[in-house]
Design goal:
binds beta-D-glucopyranose, alpha/beta, five-stranded mixed sheet, 26% strand, globular
Length: 250
């Protein structure tokens, strides 16, 4: 496994990248962030990824992983919830090869965060079933069993009480609907109880920007399963993408 790789995390508002030391899980040098183009079409986003790589000065020998806010099934985007709909059906490997002139390792953003938490963060060394959820604009999920990722779980789109779960319980909805921490915690309780019933995990790790405020909502939740905040906060997507790229480059 290469000990240094580059990770890029594509989000609704920013495309962020860094070179990552895969021994420590820390960034080497500064993180680069460029606003996500509007509209966020595949060609426009791929050009932004190119600019991120250029600003980071990433050479051809460094593996590059890219995290997307969508499932990536054998390189292809089957559906897209929170970025431009023109992504549906796109072969990400072909797109990035055309724009960046190099192969990349694409993966789902929550899967990247999950891998990073298992390798370097809150789920390091935990045996059994770990479910990492990212609470942001949507809800992302990563299911990791004894260190092995089950890719492309989409537990943010579970249908609960007739609704797509992320349309009720994401951090984005908390902001949009002006929910108090208590109101939002009620929705999270419904969500996590359901996931707990389905999977009986050994640990929940809660990530996404809002996890910095975990003290405001986590104590309000009552679950059998231990729940801890993510440790990598904003860096998990980048670190996990770099980690996966490095593993694939073996
Ligand atoms: C997408 C997932 C993604 C999550 C977080 C959901 O709407 O379907 O693939 O991981 O948002 O970005």
């Amino acid at each position: 496994m290469a000990s240094v790789a580059c990770g890029i995390d594509i989000g609704g508002s920013g495309v962020k990248g860094a070179v990552v030391d895969l021994v420590t899980g820390e960034f080497i040098g500064d993180r680069v962030r460029i606003d996500t183009p509007k509209p966020a079409t595949p060609d426009a986003v791929a050009e932004t990824c190119k600019a991120v790589l250029e600003q980071l000065g990433v050479g051809p020998g460094t593996p590059v992983g890219i995290a997307f806010p969508a499932p990536i099934i054998h390189g292809v985007v089957p559906f897209m919830a929170n970025l431009d709909q023109s992504w549906v059906g796109i072969d990400v490997n072909e797109l990035m090869q055309r724009h960046l002139g190099r192969p990349v390792t694409p993966l789902n953003d929550a899967d990247a965060a999950g891998l990073a938490e298992v390798a370097f963060g809150a789920a390091k060394g935990v045996e059994g079933t770990v479910i990492v959820t990212t609470l942001g604009t949507g809800i992302g999920s990563a299911v990791v069993v004894d260190g092995t990722l089950v890719p492309n779980t989409e537990l943010g789109h579970l249908e609960i009480d007739g609704h797509d779960a992320e349309s009720q319980a994401s951090a984005g909805q908390k902001t949009l609907q002006g929910l108090s921490w208590e109101e939002w915690a009620g929705r999270l309780q419904r969500y996590y109880s359901h996931v707990e019933m389905l999977f009986s995990p050994d640990l929940f790790v809660v990530g996404g920007g809002v996890s910095k405020n975990h003290a405001k909502f986590m104590p309000l939740l009552h679950l059998r399963t231990r729940m801890v905040p993510a440790q990598l906060f904003n860096t998990a997507g980048i670190v996990g993408a770099a980690y996966q790229a490095s593993r694939k480059a073996e």
